[in-house]
Amino acid sequence: MNTMQSEEIQTMIERGLPGAEVQVTGDGRHFDAVVISEAFAGKGLLEQHRMVYATLGGKMGGDIHALTMRTYTREQWEQANTQTEGQ
């Protein structure tokens, strides 16, 4: 089993969701991703996560043991950061 690098996962998500802003961190098997994409507009959280998983093909459960993700539209991301800064 190969270990994945954060950069590889980031590239796969960016290719699968053109125009997305993606940040991935991890230790080779467990990863955290923040994905900002207008493709998420009007979609529920589960559908957004399915869209991200689809970009990773067969890597989930194999090379990628666990992926925690937070998905946002640009507007949601800006609102989340504004609230964080105000605290």
β-strand amount:
15-25%
- Number of separate structural domains: 1
Number of beta-strand segments: 3
Question: By helix and strand content, what is the structural category?
Answer: alpha+beta
Number of helices: 3
Alpha-carbon Rg, integer? 13 Å
Sum up the overall morphology in one term: globular
How would you write the strand order of the largest sheet? 1-2-3
Average residue pLDDT: 90
- Indicate the percent of residues in helices: 25-40%
Give the biggest beta sheet: 3 strands, mixed
- Could you state the CATH homologous superfamily? BolA-like
State the CATH architecture. Answer: 2-Layer Sandwich
Please give the alpha-carbon distance between the first and last residues.
43 Å
Question: What is the fold-level CATH name, i.e. the topology?
Answer: GMP Synthetase, Chain A, domain 3
Topology, please?
Layout: H1 6-16, E1 21-26, E2 30-36, H2 45-55, E3 66-72, H3 74-85
Parallel strand pairs: 2-3
Antiparallel strand pairs: 1-2
Folded structure, characterized:
The protein is α+β, with helices and mostly antiparallel strands and 87 residues long. It has one domain: 2-Layer Sandwich (GMP Synthetase, Chain A, domain 3). Helix content is 39%, strand content 23%. The chain has 3 helices and 3 strands; from the N terminus they run αββαβα. The termini are far apart.
In a few lines, what is going on in this structure?
This protein has 87 residues and is α+β, with helices and mostly antiparallel strands. The chain is built from 3 helices and 3 strands. It is 39% helix and 23% strand.
